[in-house]
Amino acid sequence: MLVKEGEYLFLEGDKATSLVIVKSGMLVGMSKQLRQRHWQNFGPGSLIGEFSLLESTPREYTVRAAENSEVIFIEQSALQRELELKPAWFKSTLSFIANHCHIAEENQKKRKIVQALPALLFLFSKHLSATGSDNIAVAAIRKKMLVLNNTDASDTDKLLQILEGIGLLKVEGETVRVSSLQIVPMLYEALRHRAINKQVSPDILSITDQLVLTAFVKAVRENGIPLKNGHATVATELLKQQAKKTMFGSALTLRTLAPLLQGGILQSTPAFDEGSALESIESISGDFDRILDLLELNRIFPLLDKNLV
Amino acid sequence: MNGNSRQQVIPPTHSRVKAGFVVYSPDSGDRELIILDEGELVAVDKRGGNREIKFRMQPGDIVGVASLFEREPLRYTIEAAQDSSVTILSEESLESELKNIPVWLLALLKNLAVKTRQLKASAHSTPVENTLMSLAEYCAHLESGHKYGFEDLIREFNWLTRIPAATIKGDIKALARRNFIGISKDGDSLYLQVHNATLMQIYSDYLFAQDEGIAWEPLRLSLPQKRILVHLTTLDETVEMEAPEWISLLNERELPIDVAQWITLQDLGCFKEGLSNKFHIDLKKIEYYLTALRYDSNLRGAV
Prior knowledge:
The structure holds 2 protein chains of 2 kinds. Chain A is of the alpha+beta class. Chain A has 10 helices and 14 strands. In chain A, α3 packs across α6 and α7 crosses α8. Chain B has 3 domains: 13-121, Jelly Rolls; 131-203 and 208-212, Winged helix-like DNA-binding domain superfamily/Winged helix DNA-binding domain (Arc Repressor Mutant, subunit A, Orthogonal Bundle); 217-300, Orthogonal Bundle (Arc Repressor Mutant, subunit A). In chain B, 43% of the residues lie in helices and 21% in strands. Chain B has helices at residues 65-69, 91-98, 103-121, 131-140, 150-161, 165-177, 197-212, 223-232, 243-252, 259-267, 283-294, 296-300; strands spanning 13-17, 22-24, 32-38, 41-45, 52-57, 62-63, 77-80, 84-90, 147-149, 181-186, 189-194, 241-242, 271-273, 278-281. In chain B, a hairpin with a 4-residue loop joins β13 and β14. Mean pLDDT of chain B is 88; it is low at 1-5.
């Protein structure tokens, strides 16, 4: 079949059951579905519509001739005839290869979203720290994702939806608002630390550490302990009682407290050292907002893997 | 488009195997297609001294397609879980079979295999097409004047974008040539300094407009409009007036402006709408345009 320069061969979404082989000339294709930004060239020997032939899927591209071209259509009946002449394994192999290609496509779509997460968190955390505002326009973040990482608007939206699902942010019309100004930068830093230093970030805590901090927060809230310069101080005895309830019956020991004291997340009076005994510690204190942020970060961090992958 | 030379086909091997028989071992390095005709096969992962059954095959199932068509080695040992009947197609046998199919069908098979291979390989490649624009956007979010460790910065940017380090270094040189960034040495360590983060944002926007084939806003400004912008920077940002008041104020100050030009400036974001139909100037936006105009030659790379 001859296609004159400028003529359209078919439009994206057209029903189709054939494969097109470009015999001569040059055709160009554009796909909204594949979110292409540039025309794709189909020169001599190119195939268009493999899955239209195999699975009757609609046309993936809008294709027009960039110059006078000649194309050949291969219909499903021709494929059927060939397969009938072949041993059974040939048909199975063909469908295996087609299926494998679909799986690779799906995996690539998922991977693109996972791999775009650090860029989104980077842009978000930088925007928050530069403006002091808790929100950014959806259009602005979409454009920045496209520029920084070539992530298209639809993938950015999917990523925003996932982050909204875990309570990190909220999409309100044309604006994205974060639930806390601190969490996005902390989450970005935790991911960066893991990726670049190949180590778990010091902000990612063990379950025991999280339970101790939860006991600390509950002790402050339930006993109305006032904050001084953002710090809360809890008597060790009170913390021990609270820990018993929060830590499913486990007792608070110096061993369970030590990582938090050594990491500087909690402080003790008198100051903690290797030889300290829990009984000798009068009280435990800590920056209350930072502790809340750490607990929130540690709630979100495992959810990311679960929701993204 | 049909294969015109029907060549001799090397037939596949049909075998009956007892339970426990190793049909394929990854150590052999062979690339073959194994088709289970009867019985049951298991794929076992024996790496690391463990023995983990990865999947079970039922009659009609095939294994090894990816190893033959996508050049992805088969990592598992294939064993008979019970007495079975298998057909094994070697690389030579497959090739001889493929020589007897029409060219279009062969091209279809190859195309699908290549596409799959490319999709898998894309996991390790960068999705970024304009790497200089991406780096400019990244630098726009750094602190002006702050010294960043060169290697740390490359590592972070590579993690964000998967742009190879060599390409990043080339783009850093391109930014340095335009005097957007400075590179300094302190002892053995190299540092990178962004002179003006706003300018980096401007450059990123400029490259984006070029990429998209759209007219970049600062280049759309006429000379009278530029003069108006310079004058606006001398005014108080908090002053709010209605559009006709702004137009008459500017005309009084010998900066001729008509309604159409006012609308253009408003569209460009130089005036922000406040309460009761009143407008105030957006100094940040105006500074953005003026900086873009001041560094026009750097942006175009003519320095």
